[in-house]
Design brief:
Strand content: under 5%
Number of helices: 11
Radius of gyration: 20 Å
Structural class: mainly alpha
Shape: globular
Order of helices and strands: HHHHHHHHHHH
Number of strands: 0
């Protein structure tokens, strides 16, 4: 009976559903969550009846942190919490999330006010977090974790490259100084 009373989807709805199914293997139940996830505050500020993705971004950030921590905890059972924390920070950072957003081609789906000095890479990373928050609210943790692990980590996170990245900038600076025969000292100001 629900089939006969189902609302006809608009072109933007169909485009969004197609994107979610193709890129993340997810068919949304509540499309409004996903429209909100892809609405930047520069666009929502133009109208009172539209909310930005900032709250979903906040939630998605936390969900991503948990999923990546869980993934690393299982992947590296013999490593301590310090190592896992450093590794997680290499995966869950602004650059990586923006890169994933760009590779997903999120900019094509984000609503934002053009003509302003908006960094598209930044809003792609924020929208990616909001999208994960929307999936979490639209489904549950296990579904979100499965999608993140199967579609994001598998397709967009090169774990070997992440393991080789240097995140400790102080150590990197000391090594650089030694290679260039420069004495580097640190002074704590506060």
């Amino acid at each position: 009976m629900r089939f006969f009373f189902r609302k006809k989807l608009s072109d933007s709805d169909l485009k969004l559903v197609s994107f979610l199914v193709k890129k993340l293997g997810y068919r949304p139940k509540n499309l409004e969550l996903f429209h909100k996830a892809l609405t930047h505050k520069s666009f929502s500020n133009l109208r009172d009846d539209i909310q930005s993705n900032e709250r979903l971004e906040y939630l998605g950030d936390t969900v991503i942190d948990l999923i990546v921590a869980h993934f690393l905890f299982e992947k590296f059972p013999d490593r301590d919490e310090g190592y896992l924390t450093k590794l997680k920070s290499k995966i869950v950072n602004r650059n990586m999330l923006s890169q994933i957003g760009a590779e997903l081609e999120l900019a094509e789906h984000i609503k934002y006010k053009t003509g302003r000095s908006i960094r598209v890479a930044t809003i792609e990373g924020n929208a990616f977090e909001a999208l994960i928050g929307a999936i979490y609210l639209d489904s549950d943790y296990d579904t979100t974790k499965k999608i993140f692990n199967n579609y994001i980590i598998r397709n967009y996170v090169d774990l070997h490259q992440v393991l080789e990245q240097e995140i400790d900038f102080k150590s990197a600076l000391l090594i650089w100084g030694q290679k260039n025969k420069l004495g580097i000292t640190f002074k704590i100001l506060q």
